[in-house]
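Single Protein Entry

Contents — chain, fold
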Amino acid sequence: MGIFVLAGVSFIVFTLLYLSPQDAAETILGNMATEEDRAMFRSEHGLDKPFLAQYGSYLSNIVLHGDMGTSYASKQPVVTEILQRFPTTFKLAGLSIILASLLGITLGLAAAVKQNSIFDNLCTFFSVLGVSMPNFWLGMMMILLFSVTLKILPPSGFGTPLHWIMPVIALGIHAASNIMRMTRSSVLEVIRQDYIRTANAKGLEERKVVAVHVLKNALIPIVTVIGYAFGRLMGGAVMVESIFSIPGLGKLMVDAIKVKNIPLVQGSVLYIAFVLVLVNILVDVLYFFIDPRIRAQFETFHIKRAGQAQEAAKYEPA
């Protein structure tokens, strides 16, 4: 299914860029270029061909050669530019999801255990606040406060741990709010189960019941939300990287969109989609290790298939 997702993403992005009114030749070459220069540029990059011919050539180059084209501005392969910038974006999204997971799971678990308390109400309030705040607005407010007013954090860049603090918080708060809400909801559902009441009736410590029985059985929806949040962080990093001038894939995409650097925009979006497909596959694989019921279904399925194969082998001619 991931192949169909990537094919759909490539078609949508290619179509939107093809239909955009901005002329790539005029943007790249500038106003001083002659009409002959622009025509030569379009012919060199295949922009004078029909839509289906352009898309077919683009898709075949990716599938057969792994070639996403050449950047109009730098004349470098798109894959090379993406691989140079992607580690920064991945690092930003990775640090943000770690922060979001630690905050979200811890606060969500504590809020569920102390349901309807003042702490639970505060956590619910801050989760709604965190979901409502756009990450780019939060980033700009932090720059005004910590960089312009207090002058304790650098306003841009991503070179040192001090540079990481504001971008990671700006991206992580929204994800932490979603994770906390899902953790609270999932834990409350598990706490009401009969086996949890039985564990409490046996006199087990509340900490052990929560850590071993409650959290473990509530992990499936939590892991799903974390995987989805990581995907959103990869996309949300576009605005945050632009605000903090972080040399990542998001800023590369924004700069490429401004000048209609078509191969670079298409390649960047497709690469992010490819990473998200891999993340979703990883989440599905984690289900197998987290939930013994899924393992049991998997093993039962293969045992049944093996039995059917043995039964069919009995009736095959020698």
In short: The chain has two domains: 2-65, 86-290. The chain has a mean pLDDT of 83.
